[in-house]
Write a structure and sequence with these properties.
Layout: E1 4-6, H1 26-35, H2 38-55, H3 68-79, H4 84-92, H5 95-99, H6 103-109, H7 112-121, H8 150-172, H9 175-189, H10 196-216, H11 220-234, H12 236-248, H13 250-270, E2 275-281, H14 284-296, E3 308-314, H15 317-330, E4 339-340, E5 353-358, E6 364-370, H16 372-380, H17 395-400, H18 403-414, H19 418-429, E7 433-437, E8 443-447, H20 452-459, H21 461-465, E9 467-472, E10 475-477, E11 489-493, H22 515-547, H23 554-561, H24 566-574, H25 580-588, E12 612-614, E13 622-624, E14 636-640, E15 646-650, E16 665-666, E17 668-670, E18 677-686, H26 691-701, E19 705-714, E20 719-728, H27 731-742, E21 747-753
Parallel strand pairs: 1-2, 3-6, 13-15
Antiparallel strand pairs: 2-3, 4-5, 5-6, 7-8, 9-10, 9-11, 12-17, 14-15, 14-16, 18-20, 18-21, 19-20
Helix pairs in contact: 1-3, 2-4, 3-4, 3-9, 4-7, 4-9, 6-7, 7-9, 8-9, 8-18, 8-19, 9-11, 10-11, 11-12, 12-14, 18-19, 22-24, 22-25, 25-27
Length: about 750
């Protein structure tokens, strides 16, 4: 490689923007014809023509023809050397959303692959329907459902759902997000036409989601452009101040970069290493971040000297290390400022050697050493690969190696709520990462600032719950201390079942930085609360069935009430959403108003005292069985006896005979008499003055007549038993009476008895 010396103080990456022309897409097609085959160029040209017709007279907020946006998106994709399907999808990416074009039409006109790409970047409402044209652009997803008006909350929810769809689709085909990033870049470059509140919302979303995403995918060029454009709208004063500072010192900086570049170039030439050396100014947002760090150290912006970095391009990996040795021999390296991303590439495929040296005049200069191939990947990341071109490898093979894509798929399975999922994406995946090791040497990836407790939950949920301490690099370390690259972490477990501490969720204590670990701790406490509700619900239901002398199993109750499991029923009862007495009463009663009226069957004489009727038979006496003591409203069946008429049992009575002789079971029903039915029950209570008065007063309030009352005392433990025989209208009134009696002070049990 010929040695070249080139300096630059701008953030330009050499890419040209499409010039305005009377023929929409003319510059795009010039670029396409230079990079694609004739058939591929024609395919993209067809997509361009279709997009122009579909968008018709639509205009952007700036007044420019809408078609300029998809053309600019496709132009950037073509510059990235994406495949023909991706460039075509860039041209068509708004046709479903804004023009009402159906998936099938795109699939028929182009191919299913293009249609799928367009569908994946199409935004959705929370209910799955299309968002109205441009409606989504006004609200950021980052404020959550609490912010703004009801309409803004709905739109924010829609954007969270849309974002989730895009990320999941990206995990299956990464071209989806490349299209979306190209789309977002042009939107940011033309954001000035929108109202200020929309500028801020979109810029915030870009800085929180899209720029970190570009970074994780290794698309450095796109990352800094998105960051600078977002910074311009989020902090306009700071942006202008930094821009003026860079402009004032431009000549001075260019002169210094030139001197340093020449010195490095001479040293490499002397060592016989072919290289290209260039100077790169740091972009404005990164300078802003550095200024904030300097301010925390009590330094001023004028103290920042390393506003630029040198890049050294060499032919091979061996030359990278040789060049590093030359530079370190020429200028002393600064301690703790060396990173070898060639031996240990970042998860976004980035490779380079980084070092910071004290250069001319003692100023620190960052030097990056890499091959041209590494540089292509560092600038364009995943888009630098040719696997999507015709004849290339399957995208799935590459996706399997992408840590980010695997994390996205895992996080999508862990969360049902879109906002909860998006928060984990922002904190656990899109933030800068650190790489730590298990004692066995396995690499565990955590977001920057992650703790030993985050590490434990990343290994396994139960290990997190059981964490009692952590050993980092052989030393016992606080669980809330942030981990650093290269740390080796060992977790000490508590004995017994895992039980996380509630203070782990306190953000001020800093135990958990990852949303996934926080979610697991929250789930544990929610599960404990749920189990407690289920325990109470089980007890309430058992007590209600026992006191009403019911033989129903809990499974029967759950099935009859339409619940999938007894635990679901227990939880509703335990939380107070259902009352156990109401559940049992509903099962025991058969209200006529809940069923359609049928023509009356011929009814024969019944025992007037019992109020029951025997279907289709005449001249039969009836009596209630003493074993189950049915009352008005219970489900009942008749047993035909010899010489004693029909005995009325409750349907679920365990003493009902004749089940093996179905001919002796007869259909019976309650008559329409409003006569009162006797019922007896026993009340267990702590003995006190006024207990009988309180019980009888409450029974009177329910308009229930007391037939008899007996009371016995147990002086040994200060308790008493009160047996009441009352006349009720049926099981509903009886259940309501039991519920009220239970709340009388001192009562701890009520059981129904036979008469």
């Amino acid at each position: 490689m010929a040695t070249q010396t080139r300096t630059s103080d701008s953030n330009s990456n050499g890419r040209s923007r499409p010039r305005q022309t009377a023929n929409p897409g003319a510059n795009l097609m010039i670029l396409v014809k230079d990079n694609f085959t004739e058939d591929q160029s024609q395919f993209i040209s067809n997509a361009l023509d279709f997009a122009i017709r579909a968008h018709g007279e639509q205009r952007r907020k700036s007044g420019a023809p809408f078609i300029e946006h998809p053309i600019a998106t496709a132009h950037y994709l073509a510059q990235l050397h994406m495949d023909a399907d991706t460039v075509a999808a860039g041209l068509l990416h708004d046709t479903m959303e804004d023009c009402g074009i159906e998936f099938k039409e795109l699939a028929d006109r182009f191919n299913p692959n293009v249609a799928s790409l367009v569908d994946s970047v199409t935004k959705l409402n929370a209910d799955g329907s299309m968002l109205p044209w441009n409606a989504d652009a006004s609200v950021s997803i980052t404020g959550g459902l609490d912010a703004g008006t009801e309409r803004e909350s709905a739109l924010a929810a829609a954007r969270a759902a849309s974002m989730r769809k895009m990320f999941v689709a990206m995990a299956k085909d990464v071209r989806v997000v490349v299209i979306k990033l190209a789309d977002r870049l042009h939107n940011m470059l033309t954001l000035k036409a929108l109202p200020q509140h929309r500028q801020i919302a979109i810029a915030r979303e870009t800085l929180d989601i899209y720029a970190p995403l570009a970074h994780r995918l290794g698309m450095w060029d796109l990352k800094w452009r998105l960051e600078d454009e977002s910074f311009k709208y989020l902090e306009p004063r700071e942006f202008r101040a930094l821009s003026r500072l860079l402009q004032r010192k431009r000549a001075q900086r260019e002169e210094y970069v030139e001197r340093v570049t020449v010195e490095v170039d001479k040293a490499l030439k002397s060592a016989g290493i072919p290289a290209e050396v260039t100077g790169r100014a740091k972009h404005i947002y990164s300078i802003h971040q550095k200024a904030a760090r300097y301010a925390a150290q009590g330094k001023k912006l004028g103290d920042i000297h390393d506003l630029f970095a040198l890049r050294v391009f060499v032919d091979s990996v061996g030359d990278c290390y040789a060049a590093l040795g030359v530079i370190h021999g020429f200028w002393p390296p600064m301690g703790g400022q060396f990173d070898d991303y060639i031996a240990s590439p970042k998860d976004n495929m980035y490779q380079s050697l980084h070092t910071t040296v004290k250069a001319l005049d003692g100023f620190p200069v960052e030097v990056q050493i890499r091959t041209p191939e590494m540089h292509n990947i560092s600038e364009n990341g995943i888009a630098a690969h040719t696997l999507y071109k015709e004849g290339g490898d399957s995208p799935d093979r590459f996706d399997e190696g992408m840590t980010l894509l695997r994390q996205l798929l895992e996080s999508d399975r862990d969360h049902s709520e879109d906002f909860e999922w998006l928060e984990q994406i922002k904190t656990d995946i899109l933030r800068d990462q650190v790489f730590v090791y298990t004692p066995a040497g396995d690499v565990i990836e955590l977001p920057a600032g992650g703790t030993s407790l985050d590490f434990a939950y990343k290994i396994h949920t139960n290990l997190g719950h059981q964490t009692g301490g952590a050993v980092v690099n052989g030393k016992l370390t606080a669980l809330n201390k942030p981990l650093h690259n290269g740390d080796t972490v060992s977790i000490r477990k508590n004995k017994g079942p895992g039980k996380p501490r509630l203070d782990w969720l306190n953000p001020d204590l800093g135990y958990l930085k990852t949303a996934s670990a926080q979610s697991k701790v929250n789930q544990w406490f929610r599960r404990q609360e749920r189990e407690e509700k289920q325990t109470h619900g089980r007890e309430f239901l058992s007590r209600q069935l026992r006191r009403l002398h019911e033989k129903l199993s809990h499974e029967d109750v759950a099935e009859a009430m339409g619940y999938g499991s007894t635990n679901e029923l227990y939880e509703l009862i335990g939380s107070g959403e259902l009352h156990a007495g109401e559940v049992v009463a509903k099962l025991m009663s058969t209200p006529t108003e809940s069923h359609p009226q049928e023509p009356e069957k011929p009814l024969k004489k019944v025992d007037g005292t019992s109020g029951t009727i025997v279907m289709g038979m005449s001249g039969l006496l009836t009596r209630e069985a003493l074993c189950c003591n049915p009352v008005y409203g219970d489900e009942i069946v008749g047993y035909l006896t010899r010489g004693r008429g029909v005995t009325i049992h409750r349907t679920l009575c365990s003493n009902l005979r004749g089940k093996d002789q179905p001919e002796r079971l007869v259909e019976v029903d309650w008559g329409h008499s409003a006569s009162r039915i006797p019922a007896r029950f026993k009340i267990e209570a702590w003995d006190r003055v006024g207990l009988i008065r309180d019980l009888t007063s409450l029974v009177g309030e329910e308009k229930v007549n007391i037939h008899s009352l007996t009371s016995t005392e147990d002086e040994g433990n200060d308790t008493c038993s009160v047996t009441l025989t009352v006349y009720t209208t049926g099981s509903k009134q009886l259940s309501r009476l039991f519920s009220r009696l239970e709340n009388v002070r001192g009562v701890f049990g009520i059981v129904r008895q036979g008469l």
